[in-house]
Design brief:
17 helices, binds uridine-5'-diphosphate-glucuronic acid, alpha/beta
């Protein structure tokens, strides 16, 4: 099928590339001509595992193309996926102006019937507004529009795998023609007819994705309700972590056992600095605003948001307690991206932590394998290191702000020797507290009691470090 994708952010690029891999003829467009020029030159402007190779392969096979002529992209397509950004407004509501612009574009350029698919995350009832806007802006005879909602459940860092091996595909439709057209689009995914770059032809035999056909309003709500639930789950785990610190329990033991109950599930119970990124924080806010606008008291969600904001305060408190005076201290930061396997720093906890450390007069040195350039554009005063161990040199404290697997594998004994004071404050509960103590570190994390373990390795240059409880 001829498909056009409007918006070349990570959702648009992953959607366009995976639909091309599924055998469709896809043209992607964006209102940023520089982005299109970059893509045409074969450069993927974001870091998303497996995307670049799959994009290049489909580009070579002429199944995937890029154009800045949005009108041409619209005219040539039978189905149009809207993948533009819906950033938060000052009041927390989603800014839908880009969707309105796209509606105008589609309505004025189309002379043949089109299926218009909302892929961007939008509040419930946007589909109804989109349908109305397409009718109002439409000029040409023959242009009939069917609107559908097809929310994405892609996680940054595993978006290609999530698209090709989804748990569910949600189709919010109002008529059989739209349902059938979307089914045709997704059939290769449902039947696993694609070359999977993640598993190199050896995909695990899992249950096929569940196809869920709903109304448009329900599909829109499913997306916000899912992200908000995940956010609440994380905040819940974080509150349990705080309780663990007070009563001397271990958050990992508690959540591991909780997660064994299939009604709870083990995922999204990782305690730490809380949720960031461009999806969960903004979707929670938009959902709260939707509830307020419709007169529903969803204070439970407001509480989840408040708990999340408090994580940074608690983390800074741990830093202050350990360092006493922050001013003029050399602080090393491992991890800047809002989570591992991405270069995205939007609403990353690291930004707020660094901002506050700088405000208190600390000197900050940082390392992240993907997100350093973006961060140094915001904080030119921090020193970026090309190598993770360098961050530790002469540092009074080392902070872990992103759960990159790479950090678990570092040469911690070398880091011990490099640091002025062997103090690690782990905002992601990435490392094993016992092992860190055995190496001689003073180690703080969230919700994990620090046991007193005989210090095995203490070079002469460091004062002997004693165990300090996580809440000390
Ligand atoms: C999220 C959802 O997980 C996707 O299903 C959804 O499609 C996407 O938003 C979207 O709306 O486009 P994403 O923002 O990529 O995906 O990241 P998550 O994996 O959800 O992580 C969000 C944040 O929560 C990260 O900062 C992560 O470090 C944090 N997190 C996650 C925790 O603090 N604890 C956990 O147990 C899990």
């Amino acid at each position: 099928m001829r498909i056009s994708v409007i918006g070349c952010g990570y959702v648009g690029l992953v959607t366009g590339t995976c639909l091309a891999e599924a055998g469709h003829e896809v043209v992607c467009t964006d209102n940023d001509p520089k982005r299109i020029a970059t893509l045409k030159a074969g450069v993927v402007p974001i870091y998303e595992p497996h995307l670049d190779a799959m994009l290049a392969a489909n580009f070579r096979m002429n199944r995937l193309s890029f154009t800045s002529d949005a009108g041409e992209a619209v005219r040539s397509a039978e189905a149009i996926f809207i993948c533009v950004g819906t950033p938060p407004l000052e009041n927390g509501e989603a800014d839908l102006s880009a969707i309105d612009d796209v509606a105008r574009l589609i309505a004025t350029e189309s002379a043949t019937p089109k299926l218009v698919v909302e892929k961007s995350t939008v509040p419930a009832q946007t589909g109804q507004q989109l349908k109305r806007a397409l009718g109002v802006y439409s000029r040409k005879a023959g242009a009939e529009f069917r609107v559908a909602s097809n929310p994405e459940f892609l996680r940054e860092g595993t978006a290609v795998e999530d698209f090709l091996h989804p748990d569910r595909i949600v189709l919010g439709v109002e008529d059989h023609a739209s349902e059938n057209q979307l089914l045709e689009i997704y059939r290769p995914i449902l039947e696993a007819r694609f070359r999977c770059p993640v598993h190199m032809g050896a995909c695990p035999s899992t249950q096929p994705p569940k196809l869920v056909v709903t109304t448009i309003n329900s599909a829109e709500l499913i997306k916000h309700a899912s992200n908000s639930f995940l956010a609440m789950k994380i905040s819940y785990a974080n509150m349990i972590a705080d309780l663990c610190e007070k009563v001397g329990a271990d958050i990992n033991e508690v959540t591991r056992a909780m997660g064994l109950d299939p009604r709870i599930g083990s995922r999204f119970l990782a305690a730490g600095l809380g949720f960031g990124g461009f999806c969960l924080p903004k979707d929670v806010q938009a959902f709260i605003r939707l509830a307020e606008r419709t007169g529903v008291d969803f204070s439970m969600l407001k509480e989840a948001e408040r708990v999340n904001k408090r994580r940074i305060d608690l983390f800074l408190e741990k830093i202050r307690q350990a360092l006493w005076v922050v001013k003029d201290k050399q602080v090393g930061v491992l991890g800047l991206a809002f989570k591992a396997n991405t270069d995205d720093i939007r609403f990353a906890p690291s930004l707020e932590v660094i901002r506050r450390l700088l405000a208190e007069g600390a000197q900050v040195r940082a390392y992240d394998q993907e997100a350093m350039d973006r961060t140094s554009a915001i904080f030119p005063q921090i020193q970026c290191c090309r190598e993770p161990h360098e961050v530790a040199r002469d540092a009074d404290a080392l902070l872990i702000l992103t759960e990159w697997e790479e950090f678990r594998q570092l040469d911690w004994e070398r880091i011990y020797k490099l640091m002025a004071r062997p103090l690690v404050i782990d905002g992601r509960n990435l490392l094993d507290p016992k092992a860190m103590l055995e190496r001689g570190f003073e180690y703080h994390s969230f919700g994990q009691p620090v046991e007193t373990v005989p210090v095995r390795f203490v070079p002469a240059q460091h004062p002997k470090v004693s165990a300090v409880s996580a809440s000390a």
